[in-house]
Amino acid sequence: MGKITGNEPKAEEVVNKMNSEINQVIEQTPDEQEMPTYAILTVMGDTAIVEQSSTIAIDIADQLKLRNATVSIDSEAFARIYPV
Known about the structure:
Helix content is 38%, strand content 17%. Strands 1-4 form a two-stranded parallel sheet. It has a two-stranded antiparallel sheet with strand order 2-3. Strand 2 and strand 3 form a beta hairpin. The longest helix has 20 residues.
């Protein structure tokens, strides 16, 4: 965006600050033995989806060293649509 707007130095400064803040949060997360477990359930209309991989939310949780409780569940178990 910095190249497009002609503000490369400012854009680089903002990105560096953001990366620094993200790293500070990550450094405060528990070690692997204390990893909290989570599951992300997305509800849209009358459909509920259990997120197992390849989403922004999962990526953030991975960076925070959280353990996805749904990874070991066969994705076919979630293939059925359950009305909410």
